[in-house]
Automatic annotation (TrEMBL), chain A:
Name the record gives this protein: Flavocytochrome c
Organism from which the protein derives: Shewanella eurypsychrophilus
Protein family (similarity comment): Belongs to the FAD-dependent oxidoreductase 2 family. FRD/SDH subfamily.
Annotated signal peptide: 1-30
SUPFAM superfamilies the record matches: FAD/NAD(P)-binding domain, Succinate dehydrogenase/fumarate reductase flavoprotein, catalytic domain
PANTHER family in alphabetical order: FAD-DEPENDENT OXIDOREDUCTASE 2 FAD BINDING DOMAIN-CONTAINING PROTEIN (PTHR43400:SF7), FUMARATE REDUCTASE (PTHR43400)
TrEMBL record, chain B:
UniProt lineage: Bacteria, Pseudomonadati, Pseudomonadota, Gammaproteobacteria, Alteromonadales
UniProt-recorded name of the protein: Cytochrome c3 family protein
Domain Tetrahaem cytochrome positions: 33-109
Main location: periplasm
Cofactor(s) needed for function: heme c
Family matches, as Pfam families: Cytochrom_c3_2
Subcellular location(s) of the protein: Periplasm
Record's keyword annotation contains 4Fe-4S: no
Length: 506, 117
């Protein structure tokens, strides 16, 4: 492996995709139109766009509420979006496992935790609605056959343990059963179908959509645009826009191509922007979260992310230029991501910092074996070897380790004020495991505004846009400045179910 | 870095459109397909084959068996993987006219020695 190649082959591939994408996307401009006189190519009862947690939950719930003809359209060749690669962590208050473990929790408590991390601008009504129905959503996954680890986890920012995780530690442990359930109950699923605009009635109501069929993502093939009438309405479940470098830089110029991304390639945001053109209200678009636990040696979330989330409390992050620490390893996500981005060589080129952990402590995490096996992390018997491999100046590094170990002993980090509770007795000593760190764009808090009926509000009238519902990451404002880990799955699923209920009632 | 990417992208896009005519058949395809492009191009010659095209001859369960891995790495089976089960269209990882990386390499570095790009 090359230490100097920052993001390596992946970034190179991405650049290629981006450049090629621009040329291809240009002629196929998406736009919404008036529907008068339109000849419909097809008619469906319930039309759902996007096949992640939100879209799948909406389809199942619509069917349960009596819909006979439910369709999910997905632009990629495969189903599941970000949800299929997600970490499988699902927060809910008042669950059976909490009762069993004697954890005192409530809707109020979960909302209070989320309001705190939202820094005062989260949407309390939506958070409460989601928390109130989170157990129902969890039940839907179990009814479909999802399996969960037999223990609860307490994630950063949560005041109690309330997080389930699928036994495969991945969102696919939910999307796969939900997708199979959809097939079983007769939901029709269409891949390679890209939503390209709404067809709008006289009074501004949504009558249907324009859909590009036979669409091959990132390829130069035109496919064909058809007009689909949606009798009951349209549910937009198209996810976030973290993969769209232009759009994310428009919100936060620091999120350049140099910052990777953990999302599935389809997270490009055109569904959301099309709703804005229609008049939907944009909220909190600039609140985009980067994960400081990611590695430049693999793409996406990979194996390192969960490895480092687990290991940060008892590890040392080192700037390779100086051999010294440069951040509190368990500060909030933004603080750490910014600190990592500032690690550069004399020429200003990115120099991803390293996370050093004692092997005896790191090996307790199931990913450690894989991280080493797949060459995205390394094991060293001596500090000399480690320093040589990463070209870190040895003397300052040795001094830093000694200094850090004195904090482990005293329980007080006078360098960065890290809470050393979880580092107790975990001295940094050989053999070591090491991964490289570099932030990746992870979650878009912003999106269209919805109410607790999952209706999309119009910016001019303040009223819901008739026939239009949205659920999941495409919606904004719910979490405020910062989303707590494991709170997206309940949100996506509950709001997907809510959208289906509202539509079936309307 | 950015400039370099654009230049490379242009070069590569050029290559791709050239290779559209240049068919590099896999050996085991030569016999079956011969010169009849329609065997695969069931949507018309200028369109990509449908997601079902390969399944005329290949059976997904057989493929999954052939690429099965040990219990520990069981989900790294490209034909029956953790994220998409057996539902991943062949064209995500295989192209007859154009080299492709296994889709897993978007996020993982594990190797598929027999995968022909
Ligand atoms: C690696 C990773 C790990 C995560 N881990 C967790 C976790 O453990 N717990 C948690 O709570 N949250 C987690 N999150 C966040 C969470 O996974 C996402 O917020 C959530 O999956 C979003 O679900 P969704 O249904 O809104 O969208 P998605 O699952 O992204 O689905 C949207 C779908 O819409 C499709 N689409 C987009 N545009 C169009 C169009 N124009 N036409 C047709 N289809 C379109 C996309 O291709 C995609 O398939 C994680 C996120 C990532 C990326």
């Amino acid at each position: 492996m090359s230490n100097n190649n920052l993001l390596g082959r992946r970034n190179f591939i991405k650049g290629m995709g981006a450049a090629a994408g621009v040329a291809i996307a240009a002629p196929a401009m998406a736009i919404s139109e008036k529907a008068d006189g339109v000849k419909w190519d097809k008619e469906v009862e319930v039309l759902i766009i996007g096949s992640g947690f939100a879209g799948l939950a909406a389809a199942i719930e619509a069917t349960r509420k009596g819909a006979k003809d439910v369709h999910i359209f997905e632009k990629m060749s495969y189903f599941g979006g970000n949800s299929a690669i997600n970490g499988g962590l699902f927060a809910a208050p008042g669950t059976p496992m909490q009762k069993k473990e004697g954890v005192q929790d409530s809707v109020e408590r979960m909302v209070a935790d989320q309001m705190k991390s939202g820094r005062g601008v989260a949407d309390e009504a939506l958070l409460r609605h989601v928390a109130e129905h989170a157990v129902e959503a969890l039940q839907m996954t179990m009814d479909a056959g999802s399996e969960f680890h037999p223990y609860l986890q307490q994630l950063g920012g949560h005041s109690v343990a309330r997080t389930y995780q699928t036994t495969v530690s991945c969102g696919a442990g939910i999307t796969q059963p939900l997708y199979k359930e959809c097939q079983k109950i007769g939901v029709k699923t269409h891949n390679r179908s890209k939503f390209e605009g709404f067809l709008v009635g006289e009074a501004g109501e949504i009558l249907g959509v324009k859909m590009r069929e036979n669409y091959h993502f990132g390829e130069d093939q035109p496919g064909k645009v058809i007009k689909i009438r949606a009798k009951r309405g349209v549910i937009m479940a198209t996810g976030g826009f973290a993969q769209n470098i232009d759009l994310r830089m428009a919100q936060d110029p620091t999120l350049t191509a140099e910052v990777g991304c953990t999302n599935a390639p389809g997270a490009t945001g055109e569904g959301m922007y099309e709703m804005f053109r229609l008049g939907a209200i944009p909220v909190h678009l600039a609140h985009i979260q980067s994960g400081p636990w990611a590695s430049p040696d693999e793409g996406g979330f990979g194996y390192v992310s969960n490895y480092s989330i687990y290991n940060f409390p008892h590890s040392m992050a080192i700037n390779r230029l100086t051999g010294k620490r440069f951040m509190n390893e368990i500060a909030d996500r933004k603080t750490r991501a910014d600190a990592e981005l500032s690690c550069r060589d004399e020429k200003g080129e990115a120099l991803p910092p390293i996370l050093i952990t004692s092997y005896k402590d790191s090996k307790k995490h199931p990913n450690t074996k894989k991280v080493i096996k797949y060459n995205v992390g390394w094991k060293f018997d001596t500090i000399e070897e480690l320093a040589k491999h990463f070209e870190v100046p040895l003397k300052p590094l040795k001094a830093q380790i000694e200094e850090y170990n004195s904090y482990v002993k005293s329980g007080e980090d006078s360098q960065f004020g890290k809470n050393m509770t979880k580092a107790k007795d975990k001295y940094i000593q050989a053999p070591f495991t090491v991964v490289r760190l570099w932030p990746k764009v992870h979650y878009c808090q912003g999106g269209v505004q919805v109410n607790t009926e999952a209706e999309v509000k119009d910016s001019f009238t303040g009223k819901p846009i008739s026939g239009l519902y949205a659920a999941g990451e495409v919606c904004g404002g719910i979490h405020g400045v910062s989303r707590l880990g494991s709170c997206s799955i309940p949100e996506c699923m509950v709001m997907g179910m809510t959208a289906a209920r509202s539509m079936m009632k309307a | 870095m950015k400039k370099l990417n654009i230049v490379l992208a242009l070069v590569l896009t050029g290559l791709v459109s050239l290779s559209a005519q240049a068919v590099e058949l896999r050996d085991h395809h030569k016999e079956v397909i011969g010169k009849d492009c329609k065997t695969c191009h069931d949507n018309g010659i200028k369109q990509f084959p449908s997601d079902q095209a390969c399944l005329q001859c290949h059976d997904i369960d057989d493929l999954a068996e052939q690429t099965a891995r040990s219990e520990e790495d069981r989900w790294q089976n490209p034909h029956n993987n953790l994220h998409y089960g057996k539902d991943l269209p062949c064209q995500e990882c295989h192209g007859e006219h154009k080299p492709k990386k296994p889709m897993c390499s978007n996020c993982h570095t594990f190797k598929f020695d027999k995968h022909k790009e």
